[in-house]
Design a protein that fits this description.
The structure is a homotetramer of 445-residue chains. Chain A has 445 residues and is mostly helical. Chain A folds into 3 domains: 98 residues, Fumarase C, Chain B, domain 1 (Orthogonal Bundle); 252 residues, Up-down Bundle (Fumarase C, Chain A, domain 2); 74 residues, Fumarase/aspartase (C-terminal domain) (Ribonucleotide Reductase Protein R1, domain 1), CATH 1.10.40.30. Chain A has 19 helices and 6 strands. In chain A, strand 1 and strand 2 form a beta hairpin. In chain A, helix 3 packs across helix 5, helix 7 packs antiparallel against helix 9 and helix 7 runs parallel beside helix 19. At the C-D interface, strand 1, strand 2, helix 7, helix 9 and helix 10 of C face strand 1, strand 2, helix 7, helix 9 and helix 10 of D.
């Protein structure tokens, strides 16, 4: 992933040096398990840990380059790594990796990286949830117009909007926890996964120390349906980011101006139009969501490897492993910051709510008319008449609001007087269930 | 979905008549809940149920066409349906749908359809698991060559191959159960989801009777991240189908011939080459997997609806709702039948296992040499020498098998004699962990 | 594709009966070519044409069912068809399909169907271009605010907006013509495409009569990169539909109301909110675009068939062949109707243009100040000062417009007086290049 | 893109320094055009070129960091760049970028980068075509079994296989040339693309000097359908790479062994199985193809920007611009090297061709029997009988080949004697059209 969209902690998980360190940990643990079982000498395992440990810990750019240089000859990354480590460990190194295959190391290491990445992402969502909850309660009863099809519908509250996004990110958190479990497995099963050359207890030992489950059947590789499920989850989370980003983009439109991304002092909106404050963060998030979604199908295409394994998944994962997690980490953090500082304009919300002459209260009137005994069809027609009259004249000198038009309608006044109408249109009626909904979402209201 | 890939039970879920029947059930339940709360007269709810019930039950092609005819005027499907039902229910029909929106009906009905579809798919997987388990145990110890990169690696058993697919479909079943829960929610929340015009207890009542959970925040629509998760899961299951189908395609290759799809009497393989038995079922499944995966991204693009809702998701779902579930149902059933009848050729497996002169036992020899005290590098070189010699001469008059070549190598014989070598290469060694793996997968071995 | 999104002409291309008729035409033409070459008796070709022609022409639902019944036994669609035709043609039928394979018929027929579909789609775009051009000229100088990031930027004209979409659909037309050429090839090349059993002149003859090119190398199948290019093009066209649909959705927002989809008499916008006129057509188009895009990746996954061919592409194409073309045909026609009748509100455009107190003229003032000798940085600062002051007070009692704020700024007035400022802000300046752009796009202004 | 899959020349196109240099070139050209038109002083344009040129040329890591530091304050990349350049150019810098917007620079620069990338990719394909043509002629008449469904069908030649891939890459070249033209446009059109603040002649001047066409309507941005078409083309090329890679993977299977990727001295196939030569290059290419295809949908989702532009496309393009072109460049080069050195085993091809006892000649016999007067159905039955008998006994002691079985069939011998049968089965018959096909593909045979 390009540096612009990378954060250091997530980036570090995917550094070559860190990957080698994880490889070493797997090899060292496997050796210890084998020593315990008597498959290799106890001194060998000790030498691997004691000489290899510091060597692995000290891997920096120069060592990475040294390993890469070996790989350019052997054309095999794990052999290159083992060769490099062997040079530091000495003759006991021959007991390292015994009965194992490269995939045992590669796939288990990838599982470690992905679980760490998942942990960061879950933490990112936790941070986001805090802001969403805070802002939702802050605006629990801030009236704003609810819009279906981009058209004013009926009043809702800004807090309810945020509660919906909060609930979605709670689901996304649950999905990420499940996705983490999907890929948190260890395979130390040897060639074609028969565990003929490596005892299942070695696998169990390594898995236990790494906090992973044992893969029930690894045909040399950890099956890729797990990774497909993982990356699909990232795509769903990204789509949730896009939904909230799209909401902010809409709210910041010049005609709406109900909310604005925080404008940093010194920030320039445009090289030519200084008055502009563009929702560039949320637009950026929209693009990042497309990007993360784009990694889902390649991950699914990786599932159908040939026979016990082929290596076609590898080039895909070398790219999307870091790219998808780094981009999503960045996006979640950006979204959190954006929501934390989002500037909200309740007075603009109120102005927009009233901008259509009150026709947004039509549903409440329709209900009241029906309850007053009018047939649904007649009530619908009456409300439509008044609403159309209001709508058509909107912004013209002859404009009359919805209430006025209703009170000029004999069919309406036959059943409801002005007081009854005002009671029916009382905005407080719109929010009667807000507490109930908040309680469902947050456990409190 | 085209009839060719449709099965009646899944198809029925998506028929227009069935959809209208579900709509009615939702409306009738909502009316009953409202009557209980006193929002509408009890007689109204009774009339809706008693007059509407038989009318809904009797919906057939003619009635569907009648409703469609109304929709062509109103350009609104739910209003068309309510009008049609109202004609049969009479004046009490005005109490139907009170305070509700179309989405309350549409989204809850879609949830009912998707949960039913999920139930069928879970049943499909159960049927598949039965066959996979049966065949896995049948061939638990049938030796076959394990292949990585399409190249012979080391022996495994055909049962182990199937155990791997079984384990994957167990995971897929778990995922489908989770996906079912994702979309099993009910929303009766009225305009923009505030539940201002419809009591939350109505929603709870309807949800309870339909076996659904209450949607915590439905902004008029059930949030589409749920559906994205559902369709993504179908894409993962489809990819698992492709993996098994790809295995069968490989095994049926003329050069491999280890297994064959059942060839029906009367079936013609090709219009021109009568000897051919083509793996057309598994190829067909490969294509169906691509198709089902293709529906994932549109479902994810549906997440970011505008504000409280727009209707852009609808055209997508009208197509992929039925298409994805029908195609996957068909594919799972086809796969089950294919695996049930798959013709397996153990003698071909054995022949292929031995076809490379024994080099597939190199790993066992490498291990034995190392354990006998040779350095890993030296052992690697010795095994590589013998293997290369075997490999290079393969199929030529001067061909000598791996064992012979090893016994001609002084470095090898310095450490191992023929008996030790035969012990090291004993194929039984390859299967020592099969029972352990089977126990992990099936709970028995 | 569901009937709701199907139009009869495109649908007809994909009917089973029509497919069989095309199959027959290919067989009959091939027989005629073979008769000309002396490969088969001339009477045979004549009998095939004369007896087969009417039989093929008369294929209706009953005959389709008869062929399907044969297929259920033979499990081979082309053999079933040949058997059915043979029953009507008599003994000469044995000369039909000689040296050919099923794919020769299937792939060439698919090419015929796709080219016909492409022709309809090109016609659809032509119809759309007519409306876009008409509306573009109608509103060539209708001022409207140009928006970047959803934020008011500078004035443009509604005609210019449409000119941009027109230019995109001209490109889409060009792409569709190229896509049509991609798939307009014929393969009559026999098993594995060697043309060993069928003379290349037969292929050339059939191709010529069907208006197709000869496929240079068909390895039994027409290579699927052609189809991938075709479906990718449909995905691009669909994305262009989405762009215009998104524009309309934005313009119809309650806060913007610059344009509206035509509202049919009798149409009901919502079951609960009668005043609503929702942009349901453009939302529907947005969803259809997602759907058509979803077919692109499966088509690309179809490219890598195994060896000379496998049949995994078939199930994909049985679905996406009709679905993608039918959905796109429907979408283009719906878009054309929508644009034809789109209700446009120039007065609302004007009102929105002025809604921000004139800050949208800042760029013109910035330029004027720079030209009057102010440094870019100073001019930027001055304009930003005035713009920010205008923006901040917007809608408040103390509001002053951009012009007033500029004239209160000594740095500005030191270089420009009111007259100079008015000249700089003259809206006519914004449209000086409209004719030039129109000429580039339409060849006239 | 990760360094592992990057080649220096393509990488250089996407370096930050190179991007800034292209930005400068656009600004300098625009200034020169404006000076020519008298919009800015001639000395200003000269100063920009003379002082800015060396400053831009000298941009290295330190300067990139300096510009990035400015961006961290201004939060605007183009303003940061202009500020940096202005520091070196002096007061005349204020005439730079006049009337332009950031997008004018960004989008035109992106067009320059993409056209350069396209040029490299076209060159890559040219290099590939050379190898494919060379190997195709080398093996024009090398017999090999053609396979449909992975099942032996009829003989073809290895040269014909390659000719098919050659033809596909000729098409891919044509598509890349078209894709290059799609994105080779220049926009210098100012805010919302009206060209109100920048003369169309400036745009024409810049376009001409950069070898780009003028964008007919750029609504501040170059419309993204162009880029969608570009990236879709990369996805199609990638799929063609996958097709050839899949062929090699199949040919290298242990059971097939008709071809092998070149095995470098020192290369280690596996850490555990030294005899293995895995088709790791072609597997790697398969994965890279998935990756490049994954970028197609995000590019298509970029098309529907809001109104005159939003910036959601930017994050997508910052990643997929380099990633897709770098990965495809690498993949094409790797494929070329792989095909250049591919080790081909004609004797294995011959052995496989004969492995099924001659049943692969059934089509020729079927044709001969039909021509000898047998009905198609009877001939089909006879051939099927003999083929089935051959097939069933294959590899068993009682095995008899196809020819023997045919000669034991009275229905066959009633019409054909052994000589006639041998003539019918003569393999030379399979290759009669190879020259004709080669001529169609290469213009020579």
């Amino acid at each position: 992933m390009v540096p612009r969209y990378s954060r250091p902690q997530m980036d570090a998980i995917w550094s070559p040096a860190e990957r080698f360190r994880i490889w070493f940990e797997i090899e060292a643990l496997a050796a210890e398990a084998m020593a315990e079982l008597g498959t290799i000498p106890a001194e060998a395992a000790r030498a691997i840990r004691e000489k290899g440990g510091p060597r692995a810990a000290a891997i920096g750019p120069a060592e990475v380059e040294a390993i890469d240089a070996i790989e350019r000859v052997t054309r095999h990354d794990v052999i290159a790594f083992l060769t490099f480590m062997g040079e530091g460990i000495g003759p006991e190194a021959r007991f390292m990796h015994q009965g194992m295959t490269s995939s045992d190391v590669l796939d288990t290491a990838f599982a470690v990286q992905l679980t760490r990445a998942a942990d960061l992402l879950i933490g990112d969502i936790d941070a986001l949830l805090i802001q969403l909850e805070r802002r939702a309660f802050e605006h629990k009863l801030t009236p704003t117009i609810g819009r279906s099809h981009g058209i004013h519908a009926e009043p809702t509250t800004f807090g309810l909007k945020l509660a919906g996004h909060y609930a979605e990110f709670v689901r996304n958190r649950t999905r990420l926890v499940a996705a983490r479990a999907e890929i948190a497995t260890c395979a130390i099963s040897g060639p074609v996964g028969t565990q003929a050359s490596v005892d299942p207890r070695v696998e169990a030992f390594v898995a236990g120390h790494l906090g992973l489950a044992v893969e029930p059947v690894s045909t040399q590789v950890i099956p890729r349906d797990r990774h497909a499920a993982f990356f699909a989850t990232l795509g769903i989370v990204a789509s949730g980011i896009e939904r909230l980003a799209t909401e902010v983009r809409h709210l910041q439109r010049s005609e709406v101006r109900e909310a604005e991304e925080f404008f940093h002092p010194g920030q320039k909106g445009s090289s030519a139009m200084p008055h502009k404050r563009n929702p560039v963060l949320s637009e950026n998030l929209t693009g990042l969501a497309r990007l993360v979604r784009g990694y889902v199908t390649p991950a699914m295409e990786n599932v159908a490897l040939w026979h016990e394994r082929d290596i076609s998944h590898s080039s895909v994962e070398r790219v999307i492993g870091p790219d998808a997690t780094i981009a999503l980490d960045f996006a979640l953090a950006r979204l959190t910051g954006m929501m934390e500082k989002l500037v909200i304009y309740p007075e603009r919300m109120q102005a927009n709510l009233e901008a259509l002459g009150g026709v947004v209260h039509s549903q409440k009137v329709l209900l009241a008319l029906t309850q007053a005994g009018m047939s649904r069809e007649a009530a619908y027609a009456a409300v439509q008449r008044a609403a159309m009259a209001t709508w058509t004249a909107l912004g013209r000198p002859e404009a009359r609001d919805f209430r006025t038009n209703l009170l000029a309608d004999a069919e309406v006044t036959a059943l409801m007087d002005a007081a009854a109408l005002d009671a029916a249109m009382d905005p407080a009626r719109d929010f009667v269930s807000v507490d109930a909904i908040f309680t469902r979402v947050f456990g409190r209201a």
